[in-house]
Amino acid sequence: MPIVKFIDLEGAEHTVEAEIGQSVMQVGIANLVPDLVSECGGNCACASCHALVDEGWLDRLEPPQQLEADMLTCVQDYRSNSRLTCQIKMRPELDGLIVRVVNNGY
Prior knowledge:
Order of helices and strands: EEHEHEE
CATH superfamily: Beta-grasp domain
Strand order of the largest sheet: 2-1-5-3-4
CATH class: Alpha Beta
Strand content: 15-25%
Shape: globular
Structural class: alpha+beta
Helix content: 10-25%
């Protein structure tokens, strides 16, 4: 199983296993990663699961679809590596993905 490393707001690392096809948000919520929020349950209807993907992983991700790009315009601290974790689906190539949880005001 691939792993995802989450870094919470305190800087603590949480390395968890993911199933292929799960969203990064589902992986984090299922493993009780602190500070990760999912207000809309992964429907890309809010930006509560906004996180920063480690720069070294950006070229391995599918680019954001238009709906995700639109939702990212709502985040408080948008950066070039901002993504909605509900829209990143785990694939074998993402084994070791590093995601930094940010304070989204929830």
